[in-house]
Amino acid sequence: xxxxxxxxxxxxxxxxxxxxxxxxxxxxxxxxxxxxxxxxxxxxxxxxxxxxxxxxxxxxxxxxxxxxxxxxxxxxxxxxxxxxxxxxxxxxxxxxxxxxxxxxxxxxxxxxxxxxxxxxxxxxxxxxxxxxxxxxxxxxxxxxxxxxxxxxxxxxxxxx
Length: 160
Ligand SMILES: [Ca+2]
Ligand SMILES: [Ca+2]
Ligand SMILES: [Ca+2]
Known about the structure:
Order of helices and strands: HEEHEHEEEEE
CATH superfamily: Mannose-Binding Protein A, subunit A
Number of domains: 1
CATH class: Alpha Beta
Structural class: alpha+beta
Oligomer: single chain
Bound molecules: calcium ion
């Protein structure tokens, strides 16, 4: 019931839309930046963490969204080797990058020059890399890193 009220209030203006505590709003999404030492997990664990929070790893749809994430990450004062998992991966078909296990092929990309590079033979998960000023990197999925969850306003599912 409470959830229904919050969702419908989004219909009458974004100013009334509410993100959970510790989540950050941008446009029609709420984001959680998991950047505590205890948040360093593998990509698959990060998938789980986001779904436990009724969200998913971040999907970058536009340059504006990418720029928002970069700006926010810069404010977190990360160490130069810190990385942040997104939903992007090429786990199923090498060099075919998708968001999650969906058919959302990644078309707009923000790779650092020279990436993705399969460094060390098998890098299948997409991260924002602090050392690259938060441009994208392909990284070993089993490496423990921070992560970013996103949940979008369910605008299309409200009517009816
Ligand atoms: Ca998004
Ligand atoms: Ca790969
Ligand atoms: Ca790489």
